[in-house]
Design the sequence.
């Protein structure tokens, strides 16, 4: 008899609690994956996203949701981890100060470790190269390079059971993402996108992330459930 463990198609999904990552969980679930989600308490100023991630994971029926503690605020260098750097409330030129040094590299590395333990071969990340803030670790080149690394640096990769880094939002506009998520039943009222959300998850309506989110809902012709302070 074939056991469930041997046939189950597992995926580890990075879940921040925001709009994009919630959509990715729904997409993976729709593709038949058993979803294991991972969030990070990394010293971010918008910690309300962690509660949002738990709500999304519960609502979308993931198998297990794991929160990993990190101390990225120990190195600082970003408005999201250093309280002495203000979150900009106007579009920035170049790479903005909300970029967290090496964040997606660190997050994917830990997701890769968990995937190897679980026997999952697919890792999903909600990076986007269309409507995004200009972060270098959201580009297709980064995703491709990390997949190469994943298959060089792991026992599973060396033994021929390769990993895939899936970024299904890579070439979608924010409006496309919202429309896809609504079709898949994502409850966006559970999500928090704001870079300086308060403890209750209320958004500022001024930061880059709030602006992109609002523009996406408007372009999609869908009511935005974001709560603002």
Sequence:
């Amino acid at each position: 008899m074939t056991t469930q463990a041997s046939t189950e198609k597992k995926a580890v999904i990075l879940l921040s609690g925001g709009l994009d990552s919630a959509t990715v969980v729904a997409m993976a679930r729709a593709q038949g994956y058993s979803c294991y989600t991972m969030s990070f308490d990394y010293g971010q100023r918008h910690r309300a996203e962690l509660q949002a991630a738990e709500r999304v994971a519960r609502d979308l029926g993931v198998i297990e949701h794991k929160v990993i503690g990190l101390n990225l605020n120990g190195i600082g260098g970003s408005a999201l981890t250093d309280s002495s750097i203000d979150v900009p409330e106007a579009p920035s030129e170049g790479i903005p100060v909300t970029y967290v040094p090496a964040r997606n590299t660190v997050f994917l590395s830990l997701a890769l470790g968990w995937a190897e333990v679980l026997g999952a071969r697919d890792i999903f990340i909600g990076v986007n190269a269309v409507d995004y803030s200009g972060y270098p670790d959201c580009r297709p080149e980064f995703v491709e390079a990390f997949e190469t690394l994943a298959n060089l640096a792991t026992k599973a990769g060396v033994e021929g059971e390769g990993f895939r880094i899936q970024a299904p939002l890579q070439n979608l506009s924010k409006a496309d993402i919202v429309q896809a998520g609504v079709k898949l039943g994502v409850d966006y009222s559970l999500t928090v996108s704001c870079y300086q959300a308060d403890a209750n998850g209320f958004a500022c309506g001024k930061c880059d992330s709030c602006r992109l989110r609002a523009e996406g809902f408007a372009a999609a012709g869908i009511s935005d459930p974001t709560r603002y302070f």
